[in-house]
Amino acid sequence: xxxGFRPGAERKTRxxxxxxTASTTPEELFQWIMTHEHHAAKSLGIGKxxxxxxxxxxxxxxxxxxxxxxxxxxxxxxxxxxxxEGYQGLVxxxxxxxxxxxxxxxxxxxxxxTVIGSARCKDFREREGRLRAxxxxxxxxxxxxxxxxxxxxxxxxxxxxxxWSDLLSDLQKSGKxxxxxxxxxxxxxxxxxxxxxxxxxxxxxxxxxxxxxLHRIIEIVDAITTTAQSHQRTFVLExxxxxxxxxxxxxxxxxxxxxxxxxxCPPDDDWEEHLCRRxxxxxxxxxxxxxxxxxxxxxxxxxxxxxxxDIKNGSRMGVEAVMALLExxxxxxxxxxxxxxxxxxxxxxxxxxxxTKDVTRAMDERxxxxxxxxxxxxxxNNWEVYKLLAHVRPPKSKSGSHTVAVMNxxxxxxxxxxxxxxxxxxxxxQGNRMLVVHDGFEGLAKGQIEEAGWSYVGGWxxxxxxxxxxxxxxxxxxxxxxxxxxxxxxxxxxxxxxxFEAYTGGLELMEGRKQYDELCIPFVVIPAxxxxxxxxxxxxxxxxxxxxxxxxxxxxHLVQKMKTTVKRGLVLxxxxxxxxYTTDFIFNLYSEEGKGIFDSRKNVLGHMQQGGxxxxxxxxxxxxxxxxxxxxxxxxxxxxxxxxxxxxxxPDSGCVLGMRKRALVFQPVTELKEQTDFEHRIPKxxxxxxxxxxxxxxxxxxxxxxxSEHAHLEHISRKRSGEANV
Length: 726
Known about the structure:
It catalyses: beta-D-fructose 6-phosphate + ATP = beta-D-fructose 1,6-bisphosphate + ADP + H(+). It is a single chain. By secondary structure, the chain is of the alpha/beta class. The chain folds into four domains: 49-206 and 319-357, Rossmann fold, CATH 3.40.50; 210-315, 3-Layer(aba) Sandwich (Rossmann fold); 400-541 and 614-685, Rossmann fold; 544-610, Phosphofructokinase domain (Rossmann fold), CATH 3.40.50. It is 41% helix and 14% strand. The protein contains 25 helices and 21 strands. The strands form five sheets. The protein has a seven-stranded mixed β-sheet, sandwiched between helices. Helix 19 (500-512) links the parallel strand 14 (493-498) and strand 15 (523-527). The protein is globular, with a radius of gyration of 28 Å.
C-alpha cells in the first residue's frame, strides 16, 4: 500500500463550477456548495474562545461531554479553556482557567465524575463574584461559555449573561479592562448541558448521568433477585430522586416491580392495605419474589415522607453545544441542549428551568396531576405503562375476547423477553386470550403454540435471549400449514418480535394474503435485533445491550492497558463492511508495518454482542413497545371485524412499530419496501451514518463536518404538544 494513500480520496475543486456548460450539472453545483459548507465548519470558531465548566453534583458522562466540547471546538478553529472547580474556578481565575489541547482530553471518555472538578460557589451568587468572573473571561478573550450542571448551575449562567453588559461597564469604569477589551467582549453566549443523575430537568428526555445511574440500580436488582426468589422474600429498594421519580419509575418498568413510590404521584391514603393485598395476590399466583421501589423523595397525599422503613413496616450533546455557541449572536437567548428521542434539540434555558421549578411547586401545593403533566409526555407514558402492568388485574371472564399470538423471529436479542411479557400482560388486561409461539414461523407452521397466562411471563423482563425460542425461518414455504394453525387456534392477530427476518416475514405474509384468506389478520413487527437494521425504526430492541457489551468486553480491556506508559489504538470493523479489508488482512497489515514500534491484537466478539441481561434502556424500550403494539392490535382487530370474522387486507393492517426521531409510529411494511436495501439487509438511509464524521473529528482525522443539519431553537411548550415521545 502506498504511504499516504487514502482509498476513496478525491481532488477537491476550489472554484465554483459554472452552470450552463456542457460539463457542469446543477447536481455538481449543489455538491460544490455542500462541500464548501463543510469547510465553513472548520473556520467557524477562528478568532473565538470557549470555556467549559462542570458545576453542582458530578454525573457519569460529564467527561465525555467536556471531551466533545474541547475537540469539536478545536476542530472549528476556536481556542478552548477548561474552568477547573466549577464557578469557584471562574471567580478565582488564575490556574483554574487553562487552555485545553487535543491531548489534554485523551483518556477522559471512560472516566466517571468530572476530571475538571466541580464545586458549590457562594461567591458566584453575589454580584461581586460575578464581576470577578467576568474580568477573568474578558482578559482571556472568552465570549462563549458551556456550563454542564443542574438547574441551579444553569440559572446562574443565565443571570451571568443577563448582567454581562453592566459587568463590563463596571469593569471599564474601574480601569480593570480597556475600552477595546470591552468592545471585543461585548456579549456572552451561554449553552447548557444538563448533568443530573435524577433526570429532574424538564425539556430533555434524559440528562447526562441518568443512564449510568439506571445501570447501577439494575445491577443491584438483578443481584438480589436470585436470593429473593430462593427465600421467598420481598425486597424494598430506595433509589435517588428527591424531587423526581424518574429513576424509581424506570427501574420499576425495567425489573417488573410490584410497586413504586414516586413524589409526583403519591399513593391513596389506604396504600398500606392495598400493598399488602397486592403482595398476597402475587404470592397466591405462585410468585416467590416481590420487589418494591421507592424514590427518596416519595410522599403520601398529605406530604408526609414515605421511606423504605415505612414500606418495610407496611410493606451526542457536546457537539451540538459547540455549534450553538459559535452560531450565537447578541440576540440569541441562552439555551440548553437536550435530548428528545434520538434528536438533539435546543431549548431556551430559562424556559426549562422555570418548568422544572413549576414541577416542584405543583408537588408542594399537592397538584400532583399537574406535576405529572409538567414532567413531560415521556414521563407520563412510563407512568401509564407502569400502572397498567402493576396495578390493573386481568378480567376473570374472557367473553367477547380476541385471540392474539406473539412470537420471536430471527437471532436472539436482549429485551425480546421484556417485549413478550409486556405484550402478553397488556393483552390479558384487555380481556384477550394470549398465545405464545415457540421457534418463530417454523413453530407457527408446526403448531408449537400454547396459551400464556399472567404468571407464564413472570420474571422475564431481565432475562436475555429468547425464552420462546427463535429461528430465522421465513413463512412463505409454509403458508398452508401456517394458515391451518391460524384457523385451528383461532388466531386473530399476530405480534412478531424480531429483526430483519421478522420484517421480511411480514412482507411475505402480506403477499400470501392473495392466496390464503387465513393470513388476512392484523400483525405488527416490533424491531428487536443487535444489528439495528430494521427499516422504519431508528432503534431496535437489543441494540443498546449490544453496544454496552462491546464497550465492556473490548474497550475496558484497552482502557486498563492505556493507563500504563504503552500507547494503544483501537480499530473497529463491521463484519461485512468490505470483502477485501477483512479483519485478518487489517491485523496482518498492522502487525507487519508495526514491527518494532507496536504490537497488534485482534478480537472477534461474535455472538457475545447479543449480550446477557438487557440494559435498562432495552428493558424499558421493549416494555413500552409491547404495550403500544398490543393497544394498536386491539383497535385493529375491532376495526377488521366483519360478518362474524376478522378480515384485514388493507396495507395498514400489517405494520412495523418503529422509533422515528421523537415518536413511536406504525408504518405499513409495504410502504417500507421502497426504503429497503434487501441485498445488504439494511434501510437505504440510516440516521446514524451522520455520526461517523463526528467520530472522526473527535479522533483527530482531517475530515469535513456537515453543518447543514443541526438543532434549531425550539420552545418547551411546543415540544411537549407534539407526538408521543418514547
